[in-house]
Amino acid sequence: MRIGFVGLGNMGGPMCRRFLESGFEVSVYDVNPEALSSLGDTAAEPADNLKALATFADVVLLSLPDSDVVERAVLGDGGLADGLSSGKVLIDTSSSRPSSTRTIAGRLAGEGIEMLDAPISGGVLRAEEGKLAVMVGGKREVFERYYEVFQAFGEKIFHVGDHGAGHLVKSLNNLLSARTLASAAEAVILARKAGIAPETLLEVLNAGNGRSYSTEVKFPRFILNRAFDDGFALDLMAKDLKLALETAAEMDHPKFSGAAVAQLWQAAAAQGYGPEGHASIYAFLENLSGEVDHTQ
Ligand code: NAD
C-alpha cells in the first residue's frame, strides 16, 4: 500500500515517520520547505505537487490546519482530486468542519473515491510514540479495510459513525479538553494568589477527582516551566471550539457552557496568543486576573 502524506507540521511530521518506520512507501508534500526538510534523514519521497502525490498513492492522508485549506488541497485547481481515481481513499486526520467533510466525501464518491475523516487526539508527545486516539467517520467497511493505516499512528482506534462524525467527535473532545485546561489554570492562579504553591495544588488535584490530562501532563510539561511549547497552536484550539459551536447551531442544539469556553479561547487568540502553544491560555488568564508571575 503506497501512502501519500500532505502536511508535515507538528502532528503530520511524526505521524509520517511512523509510516516510514513501519515500512510503507511514502510520498510527501508540504507548502513549507522547512517542514519537508524535517524528514530529510528518511526515505520519504517529496512529490512535485498534490496531483503527482495523489497519482502515486493508494491512500492519501491529510494533516492540514483547517477545512478551508483541506478543501483547496482536495478540490482546488491542480488539487488531489485531479490525481485520485476509483479505488483510492482519502483520509483527513486534520480537525476539520464536519459539514465540509460531508461535501468533500460526496464529491469524491461521484468518482468512486472513498473518504474517511480520522482526526486524532494525544498531541505531539503521543504522535511521536504512535499512540494517538483516532476517531473515524465514514463507511464501516472502508474503515475496516484500511485499519492497518490507522495502526501506524494510533493506539485506540474507533469507528464513530458516517462521514463527518469523526470530525464532530474531535471538536467535542477538544471542547472538554479546552475547558479542563482553562479551569485548572484559573484554579492554579487563584491558589497562588492565596499563597498556595502551584506544585502543591496540582499534587493534591492529581490525588483527587479534580485531576485531568491538563493537571497530570500539561501543567508539569508545559506550564510550570512557562515554556508553553506544547506544539498545538492556541489558534487551532480556538478553531476546534468554533467548529463544535457551529455544529451545535446547525442542529439547533443549545451549548451554554461551551459558548463561554469558546469565547474565552477566542479572546486569548484576539489578544495575540494564537500562534503560541495552547498552554499559553494560562498566561492569558494570568494577565486577565492581574496576577502576572513577575518572578520568571
Ligand atoms: P501545523 O501548523 O504544525 O502543521 C500544518 C502543516 O500543513 C504545516 O507544515 C503547513 O506548512 C502545512 N500546509 C498548510 N497549507 C498547506 C497546503 N495547502 N498544502 C500542503 N501543506 C500545507 O499544525 P498541526 O499542529 O500539525 O495540526 C494539524 C492538524 O491536526 C490541525 O487540523 C490541528 O487542529 C490538528 N491537531 C493538532 C494537534 C496538535 O497537538 N498539534 C493534535 C490533534 C489534532
SSE arrangement:
Blueprint: E1 2-6, H1 12-21, E2 25-29, H2 33-37, E3 45-46, H3 50-56, E4 59-62, H4 67-75, E5 89-92, H5 98-109, E6 114-117, E7 120-121, H6 123-129, E8 132-137, H7 140-145, H8 147-151, E9 154-161, H9 165-193, H10 198-207, H11 213-223, H12 234-250, H13 256-273, H14 281-289
Parallel strand pairs: 1-2, 1-4, 2-3, 4-5, 5-6, 8-9
Antiparallel strand pairs: 7-8
Helix pairs in contact: 1-6, 9-11, 9-12, 9-13, 9-14, 12-13
The protein binds nicotinamide-adenine-dinucleotide.
Could you list some keywords that capture this structure?
single chain; 296 residues; alpha/beta; Rossmann fold; N-(1-d-carboxylethyl)-l-norvaline Dehydrogenase, domain 2; 2 domains; six-stranded parallel β-sheet; three-stranded mixed β-sheet; 14 helices; globular; binds nicotinamide-adenine-dinucleotide
Structural class: alpha/beta
- CATH architectural label of the largest domain: 3-Layer(aba) Sandwich
- Strand fraction: 5-15%
Report the bound ligands by name, code or SMILES.
nicotinamide-adenine-dinucleotide
Strand order, sheet with most strands: 3-2-1-4-5-6
The succession of helices and strands, N to C, reads EHEHEHEHEHEEHEHHEHHHHHH
Number of helices: 14
CATH superfamily of the largest domain: NAD(P)-binding Rossmann-like Domain
Largest sheet: 6 strands, parallel
Strands, total number = 9
CATH class of the largest domain: Alpha Beta
The quaternary state of the protein chains shown equals single chain
CATH topology of the largest domain: Rossmann fold
Q: Which stretches are low in confidence, meaning pLDDT under 50 for 5 or more residues running?
A: none
Roughly how many Å apart are the termini? Answer: 51 Å
